[in-house]
Write a structure and sequence with these properties.
It is a single chain. The chain has 127 residues and is mainly α. It has one domain. The chain has five helices and no strands. Helix 1 runs antiparallel to helix 3. The two termini are 34 Å apart. The model has no long low-confidence stretch (mean pLDDT 85).
């Protein structure tokens, strides 16, 4: 992979990392805020069962989204580690050793597999 392409991918990874960190900061703020501020009640406890269910569902959705973003951040950080530790082998499929297309890396900068190997991996998971 050319130096200019590596620089572009590094920039994309850093941008993705910053975006995810900002998103996780939003989730942290929303987890930290009390129930009182979310529904405007003076008490932090819901009196109606439907309100309690809605509050619990919203917290669960936020937790799932934060968990998903956390996993994505892990993949982005792993890609940055690979890029910084072994820049010459970055962009090479970890399964078959073929160079990953630049277009794929531009769209998904943390990709570690070429399209063919990723399809095989996904087919194996479906079975």
């Amino acid at each position: 992979m050319k130096k200019k392409q590596l620089t572009h991918i590094e920039q994309r990874l850093l941008e993705e990392r910053a975006r995810v960190m900002k998103e996780l900061g939003f989730y942290d703020e929303s987890f930290s805020s009390s129930l009182q501020s979310s529904d405007g009640d003076l008490s932090s406890y819901s009196f109606h069962m439907a309100d309690q269910g809605t509050d619990a569902m919203e917290r669960e959705k936020q937790f799932l989204m934060a968990s998903k973003e956390g996993r994505y951040l892990w993949h982005v950080n792993q890609a940055l580690r690979r890029l910084y530790s072994e820049p010459k082998s970055f962009g090479v499929c970890q399964s078959c050793g073929v160079e990953i297309d630049f277009e794929r890396l531009d769209a998904l900068p943390h990709a570690r597999l070429c399209i063919t190997c990723k399809e095989k991996e996904e087919d194996g998971e479906r079975r």
